[in-house]
Design a protein that fits this description.
Elements lengths: L17 H11 L5 E4 L3 H9 L5 E3 L7 H11 L5 E6 H6 L2 H9 L4 E7 L2 E2 L5 E2 L8 H7 L4 E4 L3 H14 L3 E6 L13 H11 L9
Parallel strand pairs: 1-2, 1-3, 3-4, 4-8, 7-8
Antiparallel strand pairs: 5-6
Helix pairs in contact: 1-2, 1-7
C-alpha cells in the first residue's frame, strides 16, 4: 500500500540533509547550550558536527531524548536545552510532549528530524509517511510554539527565535534519505562523564 499525499501543511517544507541542519544548529550555539541527541542517525550527525562537552549522545534508549532534555532544562533553567529527536522515536514517546507543555520550561527546544522512516533498521515507513503530523500533534498537546522549518534559513531563524523568546518550542524538519555523516563513539560512561562536566554537575578534569 502506498502512503497518501503528505498533509497540506508539509507540502511547502523543503526536504533537507540532517548533517547540514545539525551543523547549522551547532554553529549557532554560543551560550554553552546543552544538546541531547536521540538514538541513531540523529546523534551520529551531532557527533560529526563537533564534540561539544555539552552534547549528550543517546545510545539504545528509543524516545528518551525529550524526557532527558526536559530534566536538564528543569535542573538548569539558566541554560537553553535542545532535544534532537527522530520521528520514529518521538512517536514512541509522544506523551512526553504533553508533560513538556504542562511544565512549560522556557529554555527547552525540540528539533524533530522527520524522514518518515525508521532509517537505521531498514527504512520501514513511520506514521508520518501516511497522515501523522508531529508539529500539529505538538500543538494539540499544548506546545503552541511549534512550526515546520520551510528551508535551512528558516530553520536558523526558528532556532534564534526559540533561544531569544523562550518556549517550550518544537521545530519540525523534513529530511531527505541521505545517510549520517559519521557514527558516535559507543562509550556510555565516557559520554555521561563528558556531559556532566560540560554542564557543570561534575568538576572539570584537573589541569
Amino acid at each position: 500500500m502506498s502512503p497518501p499525499a503528505a498533509p497540506s501543511c508539509l507540502t511547502n517544507a523543503k526536504s533537507m540533509y540532517r548533517a547540514d541542519i545539525t551543523r547549522r544548529l551547532v554553529r549557532l550555539l554560543d551560550r554553552e547550550e546543552a544538546v541531547i541527541g536521540g538514538i541513531g542517525n540523529t546523534n551520529f550527525d551531532l557527533w560529526a558536527a563537533g564534540r561539544r562537552p555539552q552534547n549528550f549522545y543517546m545510545l539504545g534508549s528509543m524516545g528518551l531524548a525529550c524526557p532527558i532534555a526536559l530534566g536538564v532544562a528543569i535542573a538548569q533553567p539558566q541554560r537553553h536545552v535542545f532535544a534532537l529527536e527522530g520521528d520514529g522515536s518521538l512517536l514512541m514517546q509522544l506523551g512526553s510532549l504533553a508533560t513538556i507543555a504542562a511544565r512549560a520550561p522556557k529554555n527547552l527546544t525540540i528539533v524533530v528530524m522527520d524522514n518518515a522512516a525508521y532509517q537505521i533498521t531498514g527504512a520501514q515507513p513511520t506514521a508520518t509517511a501516511f497522515a501523522a503530523d508531529l508539529v500539529e500533534a505538538a500543538r494539540g498537546l499544548g506546545i503552541t510554539r511549534s512550526n515546520w522549518a520551510a528551508d535551512e534559513e528558516d530553520f536558523e531563524r526558528l532556532v534564534q527565535v526559540a533561544r531569544n523568546e523562550g518556549g517550550p518550542t518544537l521545530i519540525g524538519v523534513r529530511l531527505d534519505n541521505q545517510p549520517p555523516a559519521g557514527q558516535t563513539e559507543r562509550d556510555p560512561a565516557q559520554i555521561r562523564d563528558r556531559f556532566m562536566r560540560g554542564i557543570g554537575t561534575k568538576p572539570p578534569h584537573p589541569t
